[in-house]
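Let us practice reading a record.
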Amino acid sequence: MGRQRVDEGDLLCERCGYALEGLRRYDPCPECGRPIEQSCPERRIGSPWQQGARFGVWRNLCALLRHPLTTFDRVRVDENGARRLEADSIAWASLLFALFISVRVTIEAIDDPGGARTMALIFLVVPVLSFLIYALVLLMLTSIERRGIRFFGRMRRRRITAAIAETIVAHACVGWMISSLLIWLAWPTGSLIAWIAREHAWARWELILLAPTLLPWLGFFTGLLFFETLVAIGVRRMRFANIEGAQARLLGESSSSLEARVFSDPV
């Protein structure tokens, strides 16, 4: 059969992309043999955040660290909810980063003869500016990623709709939280390494003395790598995800029975 364009509301086999309209819920997919019931949207019970769990953003982080494949198999396509999740994740990451910058600048300003004026500037300006700048950077990177997976999804004939793309990147935004956590961990670790280097006359190795600056950058890029990895996993597990109500296209669950169509080659 030839390939045909499918709509966002069509029920597809989540393994191979075969359009399942007109088939029965308990039939196998004609293309790959996967039970059609496993592609019904109600199977996606939602991530911890989507289920309304307490501290849902942090539970999402734990779930995606422990079982990323299973978590994305459960994620429900929800564009509006995904926007809120993205905002929450970036807000947490930016808050942690702003606290890090504030603490670091405060420590470095302790010996500043400017005294109270310098400290007031730190507490009033530095947290706000660092929060806003970091949040804008993360929003920009996330937007680029969202557009990228939609573009390449179309090229590879995957049904990466706006809602699916938003859902994927929103859950992958826990990578930004990991970046901020690693930055916090990297700074004291780098400071300790630099102190040990001075105490043991390793100071001639200038790169070691730069550890307090270099390791936080390494922490950021590690979180970025985690973000990209989660996006790749999300695209793989949700490239044919079905939206709520798509099961109505099955025979016996709606008044219309449409001929099944092939969306893509079997995977």
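A brief commentary: Confidence is low (pLDDT under 50) at residues 255-267.
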